[in-house]
Amino acid sequence: MKIIRAKDYDAMSRKAANIISAQVILKPDCVLGLATGGTPVGTYKQLIEWYNKGDVDFSEVTTVNLDEYRGLPRENEQSYWSFMHHNLFDHVNIDPNRVHLPDGTNLDAEAECRHYDEVIRQLGGVDLQLLGIGGDGHIGFNEPGPAFDLGTHCVDLTESTIEANKRFFEKKEDVPRQAYTMGIKTIMQARKVLLVANGAGKAEIVKKAFFGPVTPEVPASILQMHPDFVLVGDEDALALI
After folding, report:
1. Which of 13, 75, 140, 229 could form a disulfide with 66 if both were Cys (CB 3.0 to 4.6 A apart)?
2. Domains with residue ranges and CATH for the chain
3. What span, in angstroms and rounded, lies between the C-alpha atoms of 42 and 132?
4. Strand ranges across the sheet with 67-69
5. Residues with a known catalytic role
6. Cβ atoms within 10 Å, residue 43
7. What 3-state DSSP class applies to 154?
8. What is the pLDDT of residues 84-111, one digit of tens each?
9. For residues 87-117, b (16+ Cβ closer than 10 Å) or e, as one string?
């Protein structure tokens, strides 16, 4: 595990974007695993800035996203498909045919999860997986539980996750209660994993996840076992380590 300490959110975003852009430059046809949520937005903004300067080229890159809400069509402004297009895809030269997310409108959970695992398998796996971390230690929508979920699966979102995501919706009742998410096994099979964390609110879970026991009750703790795991955090998020 490598820990990179940044002064603030902007510095954290630049350092994370630098790791991703280096991956793209070294392997132009790489497979990037991407994440949604507030934390990676600054990283995507930095990548767009470097793309506009001609420093990074996404034309051969393939992406697979961690998750998608079950039941939301792509056109819904709160879908992760929309999020990724708004925050990255619409602003760089990525081939739309190389963009992959779970299909939230396929309500046959077993079939959709099987299909998404097969997509990732046919791509040869993920070269670099970007992650955020939830306040309870979830990565993607792999929530705390009695065991690590391995492949893509449909998850019932916890109350804390629904509470954290309600700010993106008109009212709490509009937040989907289920999501499709890439599993722990798939994340751990990525050749490199990059996790970004910012703010004092993440300090306790960062300490618990990366300096506590490996347990499915703290899903991110499994990353301690990854051979090429990088944590980039600002001073507030890393204050307790």
Report:
1. 140
2. 2-234 (3.40.50.1360)
3. 12
4. 67-69, 178-181, 153-156
5. 67, 136, 138, 143
6. 28
7. strand
8. 999 999 999 999 999 999 999 999 999 9
9. bbbebbebeeebbbbbbbebeebeebbeebb
